[in-house]
DNA sequence: CTAGGGTTAG
């Protein structure tokens, strides 16, 4: 009996018995009482965690060496799962009446016809699918790290009668081309869009500017800004701030300041622009420049605000200079712009990272006593530092509390919890969180899966690994270079050399170039294992991409 | 994604 496509994860967990754990540990509600004294209270170092799974005497630690699951029913279930050989097509047409969606069918085609744009278009022309906005959005998201199939699909759809791309799909395509540094194609598309009323928007231009700045093409980013009017988008203070912010994020606050000087008379002044520069200078530890900008800000009659000061708090925290950070906090209160939730998050997170967990929790108490309300990001930080401090039980309680406090959990909340569970090799805890994400319609991203995949390679859970890869595909999360490297490295270390080889093959076929260290590792391992043929094959493969 | 915060590797 093969489970239906949508419910795999919940089935997996049901069968594993994890959902039957109906007697949770009594929760000490962390947010309703002081935490500083909590460190010594009982239960923290109890390795039996909050799920029955870890209390299982046949826990994962005992099954470290094999490819088997701890819980038989789980193993049975995964065995019955239509396993995906990642080197083959995703959904092989099965006998019977299984419906295969257009998206899946197209992705299957795209996996084998990816050599050139013409190849993609030709293959899609023969597949009989008809394009729609949601189809395009899904395919583009799945191949957002893979511009040939993405752009090929985009071009194919454009040529189909009765279909016209929406502005949103065009923006998505612009962004993918920019991410892949295909700037020539990106501009061509932008030109094409400008011929259609309402297609090039502020969003489009922002994406273009951000991608150029990220690739350190600052001159081109400025040209894009200058040319905005031609595309029918107004060149105003908001867009100048986008340009400056993009440059700061591309590690050139100097370019941002130049742009500011060049265009400020044209678009006017705002405290946002000054704060972007203060932020930029603080990030690269040029505090004197940051102070200079702050003075200029005041000269122009704009008062530094919480954002301005928070940049300085962040700078001191990065240096682990907590006394200076503290004195900025005091100054903020004196100047009438008291620290807010962002300021506290930065300060608490830095203390926690510096292993000063009690001081960090003190910040939490202080913030609450001042009536500042924690938000999602704040709780995410708190969960992160508690986990890093080995207080997973407290982290779990905060996670639970968020709901009660009416604060939404986001993808980072889950990513943090999942990463922590994976670090402790709590496989089912991690999978349960993934399922909860699904239930709450929280869309996973690459960073959700990375720790899970890494854990699978470490624990040699090949079936779970394949399960996760298909889960990623279904959630339109496309594998990037880093993830492939993680897989190859992890599998090498666990001696799963054949699998490591096939992932190498796959990444090369997708146009990624594995780093030298990864190649060396794999070759060495193959050599040591006496896998001569495979070694030669891998060497040949690598020589083709260098 | 539209000023400041949170995920990080062997």
How are the SSEs placed, and which strands pair?
Elements (H helix, E strand, L loop, with lengths): L7 H9 L35 H4 L16 H9 L21 H11 L4 H9 L7 H10 L4 H12 L8 H13 L3 H12 L7 H13 L3 H9 L10 H13 L3 H15 L3 H13 L3 H13 L6 H13 L3 H13 L6 H13 L3 H13 L6 H13 L3 H13 L6 H13 L3 H13 L6 H14 L2 H13 L6 H13 L3 H13 L6 H13 L3 H14 L1
Helix pairs in contact: 1-3, 1-23, 4-6, 5-7, 6-7, 6-8, 8-9, 8-10, 10-11, 10-12, 11-12, 12-13, 12-14, 13-14, 14-15, 14-16, 16-17, 16-18, 18-19, 18-20, 20-21, 20-22, 22-23, 22-24, 24-25, 24-26, 26-27, 26-28, 27-29, 28-29
This protein binds one DNA strand of 10 nucleotides through helix 10, helix 12, helix 14, helix 16 and helix 18.
What are the defining features of this structure?
546 residues, mainly alpha, Serine Threonine Protein Phosphatase 5, Tetratricopeptide repeat, 64% helix, 0% strand, globular, DNA-binding
Please provide a written account of the structure.
By secondary structure, this protein is mainly α. The protein has a domain at 196-301: Serine Threonine Protein Phosphatase 5, Tetratricopeptide repeat. Helices cover 64% and strands 0% of the residues. Helix 8 packs parallel to helix 10 (202-214) and helix 12 (237-249) runs antiparallel to helix 13 (253-267). The two termini are 46 Å apart. The model is unreliable at 1-99 (pLDDT under 50). It binds one DNA strand of 10 nucleotides through helix 10, helix 12, helix 14, helix 16 and helix 18. One of its GO terms (biological process) is RNA processing.
């Amino acid at each position: 009996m093969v489970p239906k496509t949508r419910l795999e994860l919940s089935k997996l967990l049901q069968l594993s018995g994890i959902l039957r754990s109906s007697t949770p540990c009594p929760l000490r509600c962390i947010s309703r009482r002081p935490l500083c004294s909590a460190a010594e209270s009982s239960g923290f170092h109890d390795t039996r965690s909050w799920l029955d799974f870890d209390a299982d005497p046949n826990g994962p630690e005992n099954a470290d060496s094999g490819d088997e699951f701890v819980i038989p029913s789980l193993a049975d279930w995964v065995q019955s799962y239509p396993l995906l050989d990642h080197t083959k097509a995703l959904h092989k047409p099965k006998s019977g009446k299984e419906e295969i969606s257009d998206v899946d069918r197209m992705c299957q085609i795209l996996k084998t016809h990816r050599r050139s744009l013409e190849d993609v278009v030709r293959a899609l022309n023969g597949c009989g699918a008809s394009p729609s906005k949601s189809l395009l959005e899904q395919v583009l998201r799945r191949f957002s790290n893979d511009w040939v199939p993405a752009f090929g699909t985009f071009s194919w759809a454009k040529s189909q009668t009765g279909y016209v791309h929406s502005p949103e799909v065009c923006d998505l395509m612009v962004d993918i081309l920019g991410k892949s540094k295909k700037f020539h194609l990106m501009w061509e598309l932008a030109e094409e869009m400008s011929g259609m009323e309402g297609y090039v928007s502020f969003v489009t231009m922002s994406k273009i500017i951000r991608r150029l700045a990220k690739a350190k093409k600052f001159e081109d980013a400025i040209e894009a800004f200058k040319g905005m009017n031609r595309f029918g988008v107004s060149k105003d203070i908001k867009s100048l701030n986008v340009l400056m912010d993009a440059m700061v994020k591309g590690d050139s606050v100097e370019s941002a300041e130049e742009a500011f000087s060049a265009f400020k008379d044209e678009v006017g002044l705002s405290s946002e622009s000054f704060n972007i520069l203060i932020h930029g200078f603080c990030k690269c530890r040029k505090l004197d420049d940051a102070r200079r900008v702050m003075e200029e800000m005041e000269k122009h009659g704009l008062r530094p605000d919480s954002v301005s000061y928070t940049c300085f708090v962040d700078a001191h925290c990065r240096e682990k200079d907590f006394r200076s950070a503290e004195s900025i906090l005091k100054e903020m209160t004196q100047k009438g712009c008291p620290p807010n939730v962002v300021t506290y998050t930065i300060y608490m997170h830095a203390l926690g990272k510096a292993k000063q967990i009690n001081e960090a929790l003190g910040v939490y108490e202080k913030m609450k006593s001042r009536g500042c309300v924690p938000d999602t990001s704040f709780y995410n930080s708190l969960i992160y530092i508690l986990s890093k401090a080995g207080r997973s039980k407290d982290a779990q309680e905060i996670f639970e509390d968020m709901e009660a406090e009416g604060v939404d959990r986001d993808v980072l909340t889950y990513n943090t919890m999942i990463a922590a569970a994976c670090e402790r090799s709590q496989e089912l805890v991690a999978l349960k969180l993934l399922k909860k994400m699904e239930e709450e319609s929280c869309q996973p991203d690459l960073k959700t899966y990375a720790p899970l995949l890494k854990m699978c390679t470490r624990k040699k859970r090949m079936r779970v690994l394949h399960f996760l890869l298909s889960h990623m595909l279904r959630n339109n999360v496309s594998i990037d270079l880093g993830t492939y490297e993680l897989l190859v490295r992890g599998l090498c270390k666990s001696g799963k050399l054949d699998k490591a080889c096939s992932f190498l093959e796959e990444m090369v076929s997708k146009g990624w170039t594995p780093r030298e260290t990864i190649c060396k590792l794999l070759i060495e391992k193959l050599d040591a294992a006496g896998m001569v043929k495979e070694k030669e094959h891998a060497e040949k493969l690598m020589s083709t991409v260098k």
